[in-house]
């Protein structure tokens, strides 16, 4: 998990989070399907709330309250986490970052939703049709109150690529460093 | 009365007895006649009523419920039997049988989503959705009656009140085979503590006096039916919880 964002209110877990068997992958297939669906919903809601862009399949992630209910002394196992992330990817809510399948980008908003958000922001705030840098859009003083503020660099690069592909931006200065990107958002 | 002796007295007694009997027969006959008349009138009124309102009975759940209650009060049940004077007369008897069959079909169709326990409210919603075009809505009361009619078939269809987050929720238990008695007993144990505490195979064995093996087999069966979820995070013990679906 990589985020520095502190949400204004704590995340409210659904009732099923307090149900101990929720943390054990169910052996009976139909029960397991329902369980995984409930987990996918929960992970999406949690990542939206905390603006989480990445989840990694490593030991520290299992300390996240999302996957560990301290009050119940129950937590998701590594195998189960792999199952859950796979389901998340299958639901188009995440993407493996590499073939090794150890990290995912979490798309609590899809790339096209993010694209729409950026274009709307540019139009509403007078940044359309003028050159902006990646840094300005992602970390600038004008965007501190935006949902995309401090967006994960890799996800940001994907959103920009998506916009470019749709010809909704004009790339002025391509760069592998997202902060140095220069482009015009067509309004 | 002075005690009569001799032939004349005996004959008079016999005569009086005979007269009383006649009188009694006449009375009984007239009462029977009256009853038959009333019955005939009642029958024709009910027939008239039902013919007049047949469409309404088939269409309006609230009206149907009142009609069924009225008939039950009089000891006739035209809606729930397809054989007999009443339903032949009224032509409304098949209603609950047809509905029963549709409930069965629905439970089978919804098994993927709900497993063996279909909440009554959802069943009604699905039934009404399915026949939205027919414009003949059914109520929870109708479905309840229909499910009760299915009971003698032994298909495992029954209405059960399960504890839920707020009070109880009525569900149609549509286990394709009947829960065996062991499983039924354990399901009850679990249902009493739904969402509050789990049981272990040991608990079941202790409170029922069964062998550990029998308790384990029974719990495995409930897991395979999706009624019970397992929690294996304690090294030593597996905990069995009543299905989470009704909590979520």
From TrEMBL, chain A:
It holds the Pfam family ESCRT-II. It comes from Allomyces macrogynus (strain ATCC 38327) (Allomyces javanicus var. macrogynus). GO terms for molecular function: protein homodimerization activity; structural molecule activity. The lineage of its organism: Eukaryota, Fungi, Fungi incertae sedis, Blastocladiomycota, Blastocladiomycetes. Belongs to the VPS25 family. InterPro entries: ESCRT-II_cplx_Vps25-sub, ESCRT-II_cplx_Vps25-sub_N, WH-like_DNA-bd_sf, WH_DNA-bd_sf. It is found in: Cytoplasm. SUPFAM superfamilies: Winged helix' DNA-binding domain (SSF46785). The keyword Phosphoprotein does not apply. It comes from the Eukaryota. One of its GO terms (cellular component) is ESCRT II complex. This is Vacuolar protein-sorting-associated protein 25. Keywords: Cytoplasm, Protein transport, Transport. GO terms for biological process: protein transport to vacuole involved in ubiquitin-dependent protein catabolic process via the multivesicular body sorting pathway.
TrEMBL record, chain B:
InterPro entries: ESCRT-2_cplx_Snf8, Snf8/Vps36, WH-like_DNA-bd_sf, WH_DNA-bd_sf. It holds the Pfam family EAP30. It comes from the Eukaryota. GO terms for cellular component: ESCRT II complex. One of its GO terms (biological process) is protein transport to vacuole involved in ubiquitin-dependent protein catabolic process via the multivesicular body sorting pathway. Belongs to the SNF8 family. This is Vacuolar-sorting protein SNF8. It comes from Allomyces macrogynus (strain ATCC 38327).
């Amino acid at each position: 998990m990589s985020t520095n964002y502190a949400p204004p209110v704590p995340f409210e877990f659904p009732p099923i989070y307090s149900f101990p068997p929720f943390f054990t992958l169910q052996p009976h297939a139909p029960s397991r399907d329902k369980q995984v669906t409930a987990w996918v919903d929960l992970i999406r809601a949690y990542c939206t709330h905390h603006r989480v862009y990445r989840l990694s399949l490593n030991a520290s992630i299992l300390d996240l309250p999302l996957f560990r209910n301290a009050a119940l002394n129950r937590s998701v196992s590594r195998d189960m986490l792999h199952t859950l992330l796979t389901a998340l990817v299958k639901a188009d809510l995440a993407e493996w970052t590499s073939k090794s399948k150890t990290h995912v980008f979490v798309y609590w908003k899809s790339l096209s939703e993010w694209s729409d958000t950026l274009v709307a922001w540019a139009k509403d705030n007078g940044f359309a049709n003028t050159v902006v840098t990646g840094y300005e859009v992602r970390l600038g003083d004008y965007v501190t109150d935006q949902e995309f503020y401090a967006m994960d660099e890799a996800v940001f690069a994907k959103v920009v690529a998506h916009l470019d592909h749709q010809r909704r931006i004009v790339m002025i200065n391509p760069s592998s460093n997202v902060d140095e990107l220069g482009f015009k958002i067509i309004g | 009365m002075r005690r009569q002796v001799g032939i004349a007295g005996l004959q008079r007694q016999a005569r009086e007895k005979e007269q009383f009997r006649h009188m009694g027969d006449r009375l009984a006959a007239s009462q029977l006649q009256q009853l038959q008349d009333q019955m005939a009138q009642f029958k024709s009124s009910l027939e008239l009523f039902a013919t007049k309102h047949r469409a309404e009975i088939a269409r309006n759940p609230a009206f149907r419920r009142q009609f069924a209650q009225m008939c039950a009060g009089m000891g006739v049940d035209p809606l729930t039997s397809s054989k007999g004077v009443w339903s032949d007369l009224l032509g409304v008897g098949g209603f609950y049988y047809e509905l029963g069959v549709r409930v069965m079909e629905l439970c089978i169709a919804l098994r993927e989503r709900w497993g063996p326990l279909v909440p009554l409210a959802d069943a009604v919603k699905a039934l009404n959705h399915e026949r939205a075009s027919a414009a003949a809505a059914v109520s929870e009361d109708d479905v309840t009656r229909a499910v009760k009619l299915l009971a003698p078939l032994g298909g495992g269809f029954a209405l059960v009140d399960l504890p839920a987050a707020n009070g109880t929720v009525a569900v149609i238990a549509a286990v394709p085979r009947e829960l065996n008695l062991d499983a039924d007993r354990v399901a009850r144990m679990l249902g009493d503590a739904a969402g509050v505490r789990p049981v272990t195979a040991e608990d079941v064995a202790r409170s029922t006096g069964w062998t550990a093996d029998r308790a384990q087999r029974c719990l495995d069966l409930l897991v395979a039916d999706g009624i019970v979820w397992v929690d294996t995070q304690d090294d030593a013990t597996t905990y069995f919880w009543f299905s989470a679906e009704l909590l979520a």
